């Protein structure tokens, strides 16, 4: 944590890697998100300064000779432009915020996919997470475990238990 400031000229985004500043992000990762968003070659871009704070907010600047200085503020996973000097028409496409959202959604989708894979019924290839399962418990060898059958309560007028009772259906 804490405050850190460095002037770090870079000849290319590929050269931007881990920085000797607490809570700093890898600029290589950020730079990859710009790839294809600008016709400028990355050898013309240099990082002028990076600021990090205890509250995990970063300020950093890129210098593109044809555009001037573009300054971004990064807080957690959101990147927003705070100012742009000189020619505004050359500003980069704002792909970083959308890319972060895309990465987050892909991570969530991957978690859901893994959960579905773990809970798939191997016979029907249907996820038990997506619908009421046909079997409440997996089948076991009857000789290794005692048989357990549902019993009715003595003082209640309960009907026979049905699958709907376990799956949120009406009784």
Q: What's this entry about, in short?
A:
The protein is of the alpha+beta class and 171 residues long. It is 20% helix and 19% strand. The protein is built from 3 helices and 5 strands.
What does this structure look like?
This is 3531_t:CDS:1. It is a single chain. This protein has 171 residues and is of the alpha+beta class. The protein has a domain at 4-101. 20% of the residues lie in helices and 19% in strands. The chain has helices at 27-34, 96-118, 163-166; strands at 4-6, 46-52, 57-64, 68-75, 78-84. The chain has a five-stranded antiparallel β-sheet, with helices on one face. Strand 3 (57-64) and strand 4 (68-75) form a beta hairpin. It is elongated. Mean pLDDT is 46; it is low at 1-61, 73-98, 131-140 and 142-171.
User: What ranges have pLDDT less than 50 throughout 5 or more consecutive residues?
Assistant: 1-61, 73-98, 131-140, 142-171
Structural class: alpha+beta
Q: Could you tell me the strand content as a percent range?
A: 15-25%
What's the average pLDDT?
46
Specify the helix fraction band. Answer: 10-25%
Strand order of the largest sheet: 1-2-3-4-5
Choose one word for the global shape. elongated
Measured between the Cα atoms of the first and last residue, the distance is 57 Å
Total of DSSP H or I helical runs spanning 4+ residues: 3
List keywords for this structure.
20% helix, elongated, disordered N terminus, disordered C terminus, five-stranded antiparallel beta sheet
Give a topology summary.
Layout: E1 4-6, H1 27-34, E2 46-52, E3 57-64, E4 68-75, E5 78-84, H2 96-118, H3 163-166
Antiparallel strand pairs: 1-2, 2-3, 3-4, 4-5
């Amino acid at each position: 944590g804490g405050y850190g400031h460095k002037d770090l000229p870079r000849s290319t985004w590929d050269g931007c890697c881990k920085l000797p500043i607490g809570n700093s992000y890898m600029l290589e990762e950020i730079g990859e998100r710009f790839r294809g968003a600008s016709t400028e070659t990355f050898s013309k871009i240099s990082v002028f300064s990076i600021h990090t704070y205890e509250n995990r907010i970063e300020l950093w600047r890129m210098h593109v000779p044809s555009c001037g200085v573009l300054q971004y503020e990064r807080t957690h996973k959101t990147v927003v432009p705070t100012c742009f000097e000189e020619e505004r028409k050359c500003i980069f496409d704002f792909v970083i915020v959308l890319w972060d959202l895309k990465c987050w959604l892909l991570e969530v989708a991957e978690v859901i996919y893994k959960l579905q894979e773990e809970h798939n019924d191997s016979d029907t290839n249907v996820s038990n997470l997506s619908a009421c399962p046909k079997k409440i418990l997996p089948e076991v060898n009857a000789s290794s475990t005692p048989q357990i059958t549902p019993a009715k309560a003595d003082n209640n007028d309960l009907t026979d238990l049905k699958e709907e009772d376990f799956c949120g259906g009406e009784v």
